[in-house]
Amino acid sequence: MKQPLAYRMRPQKIEEIVGQQHLVGPGKIIRRMVDAKLLSSMILYGPPGTGKTSIASAIAGSTKYAFRMLNAATDSKKELEIVVAEAKMSGTVILLLDEIHRLTKPKQDFLLPHLENGRIILIGATTENPYIAINPAIRSRTQIFEVKPLSEKEIASALKRALADKERGLGKLKLKLAATAQLHLCRATNGDLRSALNALELAAESTKPAADGTITITLKIIEECLQHKALVQDKNGDAHYDVVSAFQKSIRGSDADAALHYLARLLAAGDLISANRRLLTIAYEDIGLANPQAAARTVAAVTAAEKIGLPEARIPLANAVIDLCLAPKSNSAIMAIDAALSDIDKGGYGDVPAHLKDAHYRGAAKLGRGIDYHYPHEYPHDWIAQQYLPDPLKRKHYYQPKNNGRYEEALKAQYERLKTAQAKGLHL
């Protein structure tokens, strides 16, 4: 049986890896390890199809070490023993252990000494948060790296390579991939290259060629192979961004009917991920401090949607959309942090005041660190006036509260009360 295209197109050396340049680009941590041949065990975590296995196989290909793949959930301790025996006989082995968060304690206890002596370079792969799901004994012996979804440009690059490669890819076929079909492959897979390659291969192998042998892959064929409809067929490929933009602007404008319409478009296209991401952003960007409980309810709705999936996911998301549309609005938080970031970007923001600097080490007092700091809990109402911002910014007011909800009205009153007391106290 022929191996899948996604398997055949796995990179054979680190330079062939698509995406993840924050890890494998020139001068980055994994590239440095490979160049110096000083590998350490690591855990790669991130969504499916983003290159965890590819990174492991590319590391092995670039370093010429033996490469073995096991699954922590389905492979037994016996398989681990075979890999360790091989490492003892022939030298270092790179072991990709998929679903490492499901590694049992007996398997873990067997592996640990071999990680420490360097016989096994473990590359654990997981979609779970390793700081929560993976045993501390494994975490302490590995470096943890986040693998991110690929961009549309990166997926397009990988598709182009697969179409051209005559040995491992589809280059021997006379394929014509419509621009709209390629764009949909890049967008609808949400950064999952494996899904994009699988759909492309299915389309190529299941589409009848024309009389001249040309296999034309249209948007309709890709929609069928992905089981994910495009939002609309538009020439410029802007429909996805237009719908997402209209979705957020409709909620921001408190139009529940329009927002439900654009949510329906996203869900009809199977784009649950974009709907969820946008709702979480909207909850904190546009409703924000005017109604923080609406944001909390949105998080709960998105969590429910992710657990139950489509089509039932439409129900909690519709609740969230209506809730956000009719909630009071405030963008004061995003405006405040953006104003602070603007000052950071401009530079010249000054040093941390000496009394706020870390004083928990010997010799700090000699450097003037922490002297004259007033511990607020020792004063009435657990507050005392003292300077917190650096000198050049000490009169800055980033937060500009609004009056669009009872919660932020209360925050505004407290903020102004404290700022007034602070100004008076600092001028005594």
From TrEMBL:
Q: Record keywords: ATP-binding included? A: yes
**Keyword terms of this UniProt record:** ATP-binding, Nucleotide-binding
The entry lists its GO molecular-function terms as: ATP binding; ATP hydrolysis activity; DNA binding; enzyme activator activity; single-stranded DNA helicase activity
One GO term of the biological process aspect: DNA synthesis involved in DNA repair
Q: Does the keyword ATP-binding apply?
A: yes
Q: Which SUPFAM superfamilies match?
A: P-loop containing nucleoside triphosphate hydrolases (SSF52540), post-AAA+ oligomerization domain-like (SSF48019)
List each copy of the AAA+ ATPase domain by range: 38-150
Superkingdom, taxonomy of origin: Bacteria
One Pfam family here: AAA
The record, for Gene3D superfamilies, names: 1.10.8.60, 1.20.272.10, DNA polymerase III clamp loader subunits, C-terminal domain (1.10.3710.10), P-loop containing nucleotide triphosphate hydrolases (3.40.50.300)
PANTHER family reported in the protein's UniProt record? ATPASE WRNIP1 (PTHR13779:SF7), WERNER HELICASE-INTERACTING PROTEIN 1 FAMILY MEMBER (PTHR13779)
Entry similarity comment:
Belongs to the AAA ATPase family. RarA/MGS1/WRNIP1 subfamily.
Protein name (record): Replication-associated recombination protein A
User: Which organism is this entry from?
Assistant: Liquorilactobacillus satsumensis DSM 16230 = JCM 12392
